[in-house]
Amino acid sequence: LLHQYQHQYQYPSGPGNNSRDNKATSNTNNNNNESYNLRSVFDQLLMDLNLSPSSTSISSTSQKKIEQLEQKLLPPSSVSSTLPSSTRTTILSKMNRKNIRTIIFQIFKSSLQMSNEDLYKVIIKAPQLLLYSSYNIQQSVSYLQNELQLTTEDVRRMILIRPMVLAHDFHSTEDGDDYNYGEGNKTKGRDKAIGDVEAKGRRKKNKADQIIDFLSNDLKIDYKKVIVRYPQLFELKAGGLMEKAQFLLETMKLHRWNDLSFTVSAFPPLLWLSETNIEQKVHFLSTELELDDHEIRDVLVTYPQIMGLSVEQNLRHKVDYFIREGGTAEEGAGAGLSRQELKELFLYQPALLAYSLENRIKPRLRSLEENYISFCYAPPYLMSLSESKFDQWLEMQKSTWSIR
Prior knowledge:
The chain is mainly alpha-helical. The chain is built from 19 helices and no strands.
């Protein structure tokens, strides 16, 4: 039935709708026909997603989805959008109609078992994905499932997190050697990879395999769990991974390779954060909290996610608040801790500086103040409690005794 429906489906013909070369028209005399045809293609795409705009009982949620897709895909003559008109026109006018059907029905819906909601999210995040040839996208899916032995659920999750992972050339042997748009270029990158052999006659290991080898053999971590959560790992330069690993070992004061394995497994963005970014945060911890090398190592092994927080927009504000003298809320009161007290609290719970200043830290300290409870005498795990458990703890303190 799916095969029959695909062949019965007819996209409108007209300017910019050549299914072979995917080229958009440049004839300004046909602008009206082009807008009509683009709108028709767009409406057919909505039908594929069960978002028919002609329905009289369409929900407000579906209507919002249609408007968002319009903003992404249609030119300004059809809808107002913040996207450059050339980008939106190119996306629709270059679409190979048969190619779209293959991507949506054979790959996304049939092979990957994507729901209409999932497919909508993918198109909203990366509408340009519909420009890539179905052959290349299928090759990427096959590599993920067959070579890396990922489940359908894993691949689907990766695509929802980062749809353009399917546009990556997993057979490339060179960094940044991604294939081009269009059916006619489907073998360009892969033919080059297959034919590009070393002088000894041995085929070069492709870039994706080098990254997987680094994760599984060098770092000794479960690469499947890591790449499913962070598909952007495939965008790294494979040749620079070992150098980056050595930098992380030295800068983050890690003692052994196992420390690095643990931190990268818990927070893979360490592999693509800039060296300046990482150095800045380690310097902040050593100067503002007066941590020595061993303490920095302990903190980063325990909670490496702190390296993902901005110094100026996040960490500094929280440190300043904790060491600011107490007072009333109107006076901009702080926690009134000494730097040494904050250091000890942070070493006990490194995630302390990751909690929201406005939504968790300040409200809880305000509750303590209102109930005459000194933060210095509160349990060090106070910020990690859920809202319900914090309320239970606070109620128990109120019913027994308070320290001012």
